[in-house]
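Good morning,

Both structures are done.
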Amino acid sequence: MTATDTPATTDTFGFEATPVEAIAGLVDTARAAYDAGRTRPIRWRLDTLAKVRAALVDREAELLDALKADLGKPTFEAWTADIGFGISEIDHAVAHLRTWSRARRVRTPVAFQPGTSKLVPEPLGVVTVIAPWNYPVQLALQPMVAAVAAGNAVVVKPSELAPASAAVIADIVNGLGDPALQVVQGGVAETAELLAQRVDHIFYTGNGRVGRIVMHAAAEHLTPVTLELGGKSPAIVTSGANLDVAAHRIAWGKFLNAGQTCIAPDYVLVEDSVHDALVDKIKAALTEFYGDDPQQSPDYARIVNAAHFHRLEKLLDSGTVVAGGVADADDRYLAPTVLTDVDPDSPAMADEIFGPVLPVLRMGSVDEAVAFVNERDKPLALYVFSERDAETAAVVAGTSSGGVCVNGTIFHVSNPDLPFGGVGPSGMGAYHGKFGFDTFSHLKPVHERSTKLDPPMMYPPFSAKKEGLLRKGFLLPDPRDAVKHVRAKLSKP
């Protein structure tokens, strides 16, 4: 996820950077609350999540105004992708929290019986959540929700590049009055100081450059990290696709939040025979969505800041503009733009675009598209459009990505029963739903032995006979595994 380091104003919605010298104390306060056992009870977790949910509902109008100020977000888009997403995550966690928190019984090998084995979820301790600017509410609160559900104390760092949203988030968290939940506001200096503190997990969402800085800082304390990064997420459209549906879903996924979405389709690879038809249908979809002048549409967002705008504007020279191309720096407006005749070595294909510019490239075959994707870093998301099962299967099996959506975009991230995360340069670790709970938990293995039997055979001295029996006993299969083994043999032709 690409972001700039442009300083934010400090007077928007009450945004004010945290004094650097105060940050260690905030972490210490969270640590003291955790060490006192405040966050461990299920009741505290449920009550805290309920308070956060109530704040999101009660302060909806304020949050919508903040998102409009930061990113020009349309009301419905802001609610669904930021506020509503957070509420949904809380509801899912509350519904399943008691189940997730229970010890998970596992099998015990025959050789180690009588005894029982289980996995006991326990919180990690104090965790840091460093959020990005593009979905400032969702991506600050969703990880916090998972961390709280798992019983951790949390220090949240909203993005200074979305200062209005950051101010409201800080007010919500601080308004809970809970020492286990702390907020750090600010930019590079404040983030660096926060990263210098000893915590038990760091959750970072942003770009790969800063991700490396986070990992380096974490290494000082051997702190585990979750990195939600980004990359160039392709959309592959074959001649077997429903072009009308593909055009609508690609256009929606790409130009949501003016393209400032880490899993937005970054570019399209389309089979040559349907290239022109797809481009025409994407252009028609844009007119349908935003009218003849998207700048006047109430449903189209703005670029986050001037630096980001000017970076994107330069990409318009990477190909032939067949739709959009209009730029207004004063309004931070860049029209939804489609490029054709794009050289694979052009600037638009070098790094994640993270804006409303969509390169469309021709491909000769599905195999060619798969090879093209595999020559590049593993993306955070991959989209394939085809009505032919063999084609979609070939793409899914032949590529590696953080997640895949077939005949759609974005929506795989909305299922709380699917993990969201990257692979390779697009990130490490995952969250959402139970996957978030597990990310912020240590599954502690516990084996309990019976004292009713204490066979002397297991203790020295070891004779040859004793050793032979012990070896056989050690390798004795679990009865259920033995049955499966026999069944597998019998099923062979």
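Second structure follows.
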Amino acid sequence: MSTKINARSPYFITINEPVESLPEFVCQDPLNGANPFGFSVDSNGNITLPQLQRGQISNQSADSFPALAPGASSVPRVLTLTIQIPENFSNTPDRSISCNVSFTQTAPSVPTNNCPSTNGTIPNQTLTKESTATTLNISSYFTAGSSPINRYSVNNNRPDFVTTSISGSTLSMTPSTVCATHSITVSAHYDADNCSVSQSISITIGGCTTWTDDLQGGSIDQDGTINDPSTTAVPITERRLSSGGANVTSVAPNDTANSITIPMWFLVTVPDGYTNAGSLEVSHPLVQAGTTLKTVICSGETFSGPSITPQFTGWRITTSGSVDVGNAFVNGVPATVTAYTTPIPRNTSTSTVARTLQIAFTVPDGYANSGATKVCSHVVNQDAAELVCGTHGLALTQPAGTPGDLCSNAFTAGNVVTCFVEDVGTALIGTRICSGGTPFNGGNNYYGFSDYVVSPLTGVGKTFFYGQISTTGYVLNLSQKTCASSTDDGEGVQY
């Protein structure tokens, strides 16, 4: 957007374009976060990687988890993701951040005689980068139960590494340009009894040149805790304070006020496929923080020492001027909101109006001004008088009284409505659903959500998003679940 200003000679106008301060890219934040959603682990240990609102997953701490035996206790699973930082964030030069996602893995149902079993172990596969597809018939590695196996499937969370497909029992694997070793999972199914069995396949892609040092970022906390740098394809196995020295898990605390630079060497394991595969020592100094704690300041406020700014999320001002209270975070830690601007005048315009809220919050522990009340400005676009419905298409299922009804019915996501959010995700919570240009009366029922028409979206074995829609069209909540059976009435993972 540009503005034309006319000035008569001999007057001259000098205009300096304002410089926008870049936000920090973090794990969870509606405006500036990766916001991973949809992570799950099935009973066989197969991982479904989450989708991201922003950024791209470049690595993960595990390709799969151990399978659970029938009747076993549920196990909480945590997966650490390495997420590439997009452009136009203050920490873009760091290249990546680490984010943890969690899911509770549940045991499978007690198998019947119809369920398949594994037969031996599928051998490791070695492929050459950028070569044509390699095929493998996996039927001999599974044994049918009393009834025949009715289908095979493949779970591949690293399509950037290798693309896979399965036709009948023939698995096709096409390598990319990335030399590394990752695992995929293939499964044999007997759907009538909702049972399956899986085997993992380790795939190594070779044919690459020499791996070169790409360690980026990393830091050391004041207490000596080492935060590893990020790297694309190599795991870090040791941390050293001198070349060839002993492995260390931490360093001495820095009791000085200022940060210091610590020389560090990292031992990495270069994967097969590179000419220098094996252990390699890389020099990468890290900065250790001093005893001076960061002070929480408002965005745009100047401060001479170490500082950090809060993030405000979820704030909304309705057309009438009422404020839907959101959250205040300091580096992802919630801060208690104690007050905010009120009242706000009604918006009679057909356009949104930028309103500046003064939000007071208590600074959380761990900062120089912890416990103090801080008041910061946050701009919120007040709802327009006539701005009710968005234009982005969204597919809904038929209504259901409970989440369990979505499992007992194979509903098609064919009821196309509109909203303000482009993709199904956390941002959908609190937005308004419309049909025919007017708010959709959801009756506080549950609906399955999809970005496109899916037939069916719900039912046994389906993984889908669902949530409640109010009588005035607002999405009250959002969850994801996988229907274990037609009688599965448990809640999904809520966002």
